[in-house]
From TrEMBL:
<protein>
    <submittedName>
        <fullName>Uncharacterized protein</fullName>
    </submittedName>
</protein>
Amino acid sequence: MLEVVCGRRPVEPRASPKEVILVDWVFECMERGNILEAIDRKLGTEYAVEEAELALKLGLLCSHAIAAARPSMTTVVEYLEGRAQLPENLVDIIKSQDFGGASNEEDVLPTTTTSLTISEPFTSRGR
């Protein structure tokens, strides 16, 4: 999500030192109060500001180093469809490196009632 909205790769070795790591740079923009600074300039003004901001914040949340902090795909869809709101303490969640024993996202983020059963492996068989 961040790569698409920002028009950048996750690591840009030729970028300025502050912008080398995409996730860190977007988070820094958010902390400064100007997350929209991270949007790909090639988009010009051809985007919905609210949607771009949501995509950036959601991209940060989905990139969290701790699995328990990352939303499920069901929750991601709820955010994108406007049926759920991102947590008010999003910055604190993204900054956090310790979830106090949280073993899954239900301990951190809003829960959903949908379940998913996987019967086939995700890996392709020899491809």
